[in-house]
Amino acid sequence: MAVLVTRPDERGKQLVDLLNQSGIVALHLPLFTFESGGDLEAFPKKLTQLNCGDYVFLVSQSAVDFSVKTLKETGFYWREDLQYFTVGQRTAQYFSCQSEQVVRYPISQENSEALLALPQMQRLDGKQILILRGNSGREYFAEQAKQRGAIVDILECYRREPILYNKEEQTSICKRAGVDTLVVTSLEILQALIEFVPENEQNWLKGCRLVTVSPRIAEAAQQQGWQSVTLSPKADNPSLLNTLLSSMT
């Protein structure tokens, strides 16, 4: 087995290192980088305007990185009278270390549905929710929160910028390395990967086994033509590594 990891930034590199240490050939091909979002300048003011007990939801570690950096640079602090939420345990732990705040997250699954099932999300009349995310993302949580009476504000903390490659050359490198397994951790990456690989290599691409982190991505991949899709129970690197290792036994 040879694995192509498309997860961006250091987390993608770390997964490649973990796979290499386990004796698995792995290549890193991030399809975009993260840059500062267009709404970051307004973030400190929006944070101060929230009422005591309001909610702040950080969708990813990238949202944590850019929001933490902005507060440090402007001399603001994470308010102790707000409630903070993430979807996943790893992001919660990461944010808690950065902010020294209590962070709530769903235990059962790492998705918007599980987040909405938390006790704190059941009665939202008049509650303000500030969502810190990238320049695109799933709207389900925001829509459901509004239906439950919340006042939702979405702030773009970061944006995805495509990385320019020679597509034919990179695809050839993957094939020569024997890549037969793909790690895809978001719908945006899935779509970018489909667009990245030349049309005459789409059969190779969709003939690879795809390892992903949510039923939504798995379903989208199957609709695009993938026959072999494996779901990791969580999105963190140790879970992905265990999923990949278990497929070898």
What do you see in this structure?
One of its GO terms (biological process) is protoporphyrinogen IX biosynthetic process. With 249 residues, this protein is α/β, with parallel strands linked by helices. The chain is built from 11 helices and 12 strands. It has helices at residues 9-21, 43-49, 61-74, 89-99, 112-116, 140-147, 167-176, 187-196, 202-207, 215-223, 237-246; strands at residues 2-5, 25-28, 32-36, 55-58, 83-85, 103-104, 128-133, 151-156, 158-162, 181-183, 209-212, 229-231. The strands form 3 sheets. A 5-stranded parallel β-sheet has the order 2-1-10-11-12, sandwiched between helices. It has a 5-stranded parallel β-sheet with strand order 6-5-4-7-8, sandwiched between helices. The protein has a two-stranded antiparallel sheet with strand order 3-9. Strand 1 (2-5), helix 1 and strand 2 (25-28) form a beta-alpha-beta unit. Helix 1 runs parallel beside helix 11 (237-246) and helix 3 runs parallel beside helix 4. It is elongated. The model has no long low-confidence stretch (mean pLDDT 93).
